[in-house]
Design a protein that fits this description.
The complex is a heterodimer of chains A (about 250) and B (about 180). Chain A has about 250 residues and is mainly β. Chain A contains no helices and 21 strands. Chain A has a four-stranded antiparallel beta sheet with strand order 2-3-4-5, with no helix packed on it. Chain A has a four-stranded antiparallel beta sheet with strand order 6-7-8-9, with no helix packed on it. Classes of the chains: A mainly beta (about 250), B mainly beta (about 180).
Chain lengths: ~250, ~180
């Protein structure tokens, strides 16, 4: 469970929220280059010299090897109501309202579909590491579902992901992973800390109820939280014991 | 000569797409004279493409986040981007607001911030955060609106009138004779 990245995918015509991932290409460096790190609700992502964007139906590819002059290269129709995308190594995880897609971008300008996992209609962000994908599905509002759950998939065979476990949630949005702790922004309930060391036996170890989180980005020892009413910064040098450093709510 | 089956498939596809596209407006539905629902918020076309950095702004509708070096960016849906100095995360502070009408997303590479300004992909040079500039604009690469329907299902809404500008959001209010419905 190392070298973790998350995929966050979300859904909804409206663009919901998701939480985040870890630091593969996050650089974390100051303001001097490289690419940054988005949350699990992201619809734009840079992988090496390409910018990938999704709209409701399509994945678009831009060549940004000249950073100040993106060149539009390709557009791939994915499906309906595409919500979020998450890069992991040479794969793009894309969440739509009723499915999770895995695309291979080994050839960066020609994304190829590896698999498509149907799930029940709902809104869903995803996070991924080498072998596991965590997908939250939330209902209500525009999501067209009353399901609220965390699905855990074995993705060792990316062409045929297997559902390993489902856990019931309140209204989960974004998510983020650091080491063996999965942070889930469970709207209305709080920020859940799940121990995913053994994914099949995922269990909750804590829940922070002080704020309403919708997405998170784990970035090194820092957890950045998108709140309903602003933003929060937490220390996660011990991933199981987040402590709030500051917040902005106005 | 095309087979009946493929023509039939094409027909079904067209019907299915039509059904999806028109799902906002159901002509069999009864539309009440007055009911709570959503009305579009428009922006005039002349203001659509003005991107500039201004002093920090209060949150209106805090949205997605993005981390880059010692800065954190947070969207204010449809309105712009809050720039937060989080180099000392114990004292994170807003330092700028970048007006980007229609914004929903960003990504950054090598001090170049990519974002959506309605249908355009805009590249903003943030090397000097106090003096940002638009480096490039890829016109019309995105769909007309990412906000083509109100943020709720099973709800009446005032139909979009493109002559009024572009839709930058939705407000919940009492509607008179709404003619559109999101299923």
């Amino acid at each position: 469970m190392r070298n973790i990245i998350l995929i966050a995918i979300t859904i909804g015509i409206v663009g919901m929220l998701a939480c985040t991932k870890d630091s593969a290409n996050s650089g974390g460096a100051s303001f001097d280059g490289g690419s940054g790190q988005g949350g699990s609700l992201a619809r734009f992502t840079v992988v090496n010299n390409h910018l990938y964007t999704i709209d409701n139906q399509n994945l678009s590819v831009f060549d940004v090897s000249a950073a100040d002059k993106p060149v539009y290269k390709n557009r791939v129709n994915i499906g309906f109501e595409i919500e979020a995308l998450f890069p992991y190594k040479d794969k793009l995880f894309i969440a739509s309202r009723n499915a999770m897609f895995i695309y291979n971008i080994a050839n960066p300008e020609q994304p190829v579909q590896e698999s498509r996992v149907q799930h029940f209609t709902g809104c869903d962000p995803v996070v991924v590491n080498d072998s596991i994908a965590f997908l939250t599905i939330h209902g209500g509002n525009a999501c067209g579902s009353s399901l609220n759950q965390l699905n855990i998939y074995d993705i060792r065979n990316v062409k045929n992901p297997q559902l390993m476990q489902t856990l019931s949630m309140t209204n989960p949005y974004g998510l983020g992973l650091k080491d063996s702790i999965l942070y889930i922004c469970d709207n209305g309930a709080g920020l859940r800390l799940m121990n995913v060391k053994d994914p099949v036996n995922t269990s909750q170890i804590d829940i922070l109820t002080e704020d309403n989180y919708l997405d998170v980005i784990p970035s090194g020892d820092l957890l950045i939280g998108m709140l309903t009413d602003g933003i929060a910064f937490l220390d996660i040098s011990d991933p199981a014991k987040p402590t709030k450093l500051s917040e902005i709510k106005n | 000569m095309r087979s009946y089956t493929s023509d039939m498939n094409k027909y079904l596809l067209i019907v299915a797409m039509g059904a999806l596209l028109s799902s906002g407006c159901n002509f069999q539905r009864e539309y009440p004279a007055e009911i709570d629902g959503y009305a579009p918020i428009y922006m005039a076309e002349t203001d659509q493409f003005e991107i500039k950095a201004v002093e920090p702004q209060p949150y209106e509708n805090p949205g997605k986040i993005y981390q880059y070096g010692s800065y954190t960016f947070q969207m204010d849906q449809g309105k712009g981007i809050h720039v937060i100095n989080s180099g000392n995360p114990s004292q994170a502070i807003k330092i700028k607001f970048i007006n980007v009408p229609g914004v929903t997303d960003i990504s950054i590479k090598d001090n170049m911030l990519y974002t959506n300004n309605f249908r355009d992909l805009v590249s903003i040079n943030i090397t000097d955060i106090n003096n940002i500039s638009v480096s490039h604009r890829n016109k019309n690469v995105f769909p007309a609106t990412l906000d083509g329907a109100p943020p709720e299902t099973n709800i009446y809404f005032e139909c979009i009138d493109n002559s009024k500008g572009v839709v930058v959001g939705w407000e919940k209010k009492s509607l008179q004779n709404p003619k559109c419905f999101r299923q």
